[in-house]
Amino acid sequence: MASAGGGSLRRANTSVSLPDLSTTIKANEHERKVADKSINSVETHFDELATKLNHYAVRLGKLRNAGDEFHKAVETYADEESSGLKQALHTFAECFATIQDLRHEQVQQIADKNVQAFSIYKTKCRQAKDDVKSNLGALDNEVKKYKSLERLKTRSASNPSRLARAQTEFQKASDEAGRSSRILHEQMEEFERAKIREIKQIFRDFIHNEIYFFAKGLELYTRAYDGLTSLNDENDIEEFRASMSWQPQGHSTPGFSRHRSEPVLNSHIEEQDFNESV
User: Fold this and answer.
1) Where do the DSSP E strands lie in the chain?
2) HSE, side-chain direction, 13 A CA sphere, residue 258
3) Which bin fits 250, alpha (ψ -120 to 50), beta or left (φ > 0)?
4) Is the Cβ–Cβ distance between 9 and 146 less than 8 Å?
5) Where is 114: in which H helix or E strand?
6) First to last CA, the chain
7) Exposed/middle/buried for 104, CB within 10 Å: 0-12, 13-18, 19+?
């Protein structure tokens, strides 16, 4: 942006040349162009970032809901398994459910803090545009008063009072333009500073939120992984093998097993064959 008052008509007297007017007009146009570009860029891109980040949060919310359904399915299945596998699956389900709770917090953080921070810039951009319009109006008025003064110098040179009044009006407009130009530069500089601070804070908050989720998720998944790794397969197989043995009601003797009864049956058959041969 051009430096404050760099190409202005602002000076203590009214002996201003046409080149000075041209320079002032170009300086005003440059200030307007840079200010509008900066504000429009923030207004456009912050709105887009808010929209896309909100979509990201919505999809995470749907993933969280799907995770809840998967957790319930694992819990239901675990209740029908042998004790070792049941415990490992319940541990996994518990860890997975906690991760979904963390994901819910992650979604809330994004929606309530990150998206909201982007969204409020609509209001800030509207205010910044109003400030630019107000301050540049004073710069435009300076040029207008200068042109009016130049016309009077040509057409009303014989009317000193009218010419003096026009000179006074121009001087006031010039002073006001100088003040507005300084304010505009200060406001736009503060707008840029605030934008940079806000961007840094929004993305740092977002990254912190993501890191926290993944760090806690890693801890929980590690616990679930260790639970499955420490599962003794043979204990569950032995439990299953025992469940395959039938035991009559009211009997405390070991259950019936086809494998254990085969030697007795074979012995009976061999004894019958021997008697018949005799």
Assistant:
1) none
2) 1
3) left
4) yes
5) none
6) 123
7) middle
Top CATH class, 28-236: mainly alpha
Q: How many helices (H) and strands (E) does the chain have?
A: 7, 0
109-132 b/e (C-beta count within 10 Å ≥ 16 → b): bbbeebbebbbebeebbeebeebb
Measured distance CA(124)–CA(130) in Å, rounded? 10
Amino acid at 18: L
2-22 pLDDT, tens digit per residue, is: 444 444 444 434 444 444 667
Q: What is the pLDDT of residues 48-79, one digit of tens each?
A: 999 999 999 999 999 999 999 999 999 999 99
Q: What is the pTM of this model?
A: 0.71
Residue 131 makes CB contacts below 8 A (sequence gap 6+) with: 183, 184, 187
Residue 1 one-letter amino acid: M
